[in-house]
Design brief:
Structural class: alpha+beta
Strand order of the largest sheet: 2-1-6-5-4-3
Number of strands: 6
Strand content: over 45%
Helix content: 25-40%
Oligomer: single chain
Length: 132
């Protein structure tokens, strides 16, 4: 993995946490594919393009009264960057959630072309063919 790819993912994660949409999507290829895997929740989906990704993430964030996303680790996985994070929040209905979230980011020319989201670190590690 190039240092540029790691830096691009780190910039994107920092922008996401800061709520800076424009800086976050600046790291995307316009034709990005965003995949929510079955382990993430009951409604896996695939979104294509910046506008679909923005709408999906906005919808997700709109569910929460209080939401926090914390990156715990970046892992070199060859052509990919694996991100292990924790997300926690309280929904508008009062339900509290705290869970692991794994992401695999594929870059081309220092732009994110594909992101896969997993409901656990173990799933993301397995998908990236990493050992524990």
């Amino acid at each position: 993995m190039s240092e540029e790819n790691l830096d691009a993912v780190r910039r994107g994660m920092e922008a996401f946490v800061a709520g800076d949409w424009e800086a976050w999507v600046a790291e995307f290829d316009p034709e990005i594919t965003w995949e929510e895997t079955p382990g993430l929740g009951p409604d896996p989906a695939i979104y294509r393009g910046v506008d679909e990704v923005r709408a999906a993430v906005s919808s997700w964030l709109g569910v929460w009264v209080d939401y926090d996303f914390e990156v715990r680790q970046y892992i070199d996985a060859g052509d990919d960057v694996v991100v292990l994070a924790n997300e926690r929040g309280r929904s508008r209905t009062g339900v509290s959630v705290e869970r692991e979230l794994g992401q695999i980011h594929t870059l081309r020319d220092r732009k994110l072309v594909r992101t896969r989201l997993y409901g656990s670190w173990a799933e993301a590690r397995e998908a990236a063919e990493l050992s524990e």
